Amino acid sequence: MGFEALDDLLDDTLTLPIKGREYVVEAPSAEIGLRTQALVQAAAIAADGGRTNERILADAAERDMYADLLGDTHAQMIADGVKWPALKHAALTTMVWVVQDREAAERYWNAGGDPKAAAPNRASRRSQAARSGGASTTRNPGSGSGTSTRPARRRGGKASAARK
Fold this sequence. Notes:
mainly alpha, single chain, 10 helices, two-stranded antiparallel sheet, 55% helix, 164 residues
């Protein structure tokens, strides 16, 4: 069978409509993608109260992450007079695309950046489960605590007297 050319399988652009114009954002380089993933992971750890690699956060602070993510489209948006909230939303949508995938980026974009609105709700999760064949019927394994529900043997009963 063989592998198909990856260029034919992946769409490495996002098209973001802003004020009647479509801005095409090219996928960032592998270096920028890896740095973005490291930054998001470090931010998640810090938000959870954990210690992060301060070098990663300092590197991100030294560079213009939005310009890196948007590439040539960043300069085009600036030249077109795109307002800050729209540019920021475009950059963060691109970040979601890089770190997760196109569908997550579309949810983020269409939710206007509101994470609560972007998260799938219970009804949509159920509908997705129905489309995929329903919920799993695999039973959960029993407790792994090592305790047993069997009653303990009594000491000093007939069995222990017989052993004497």
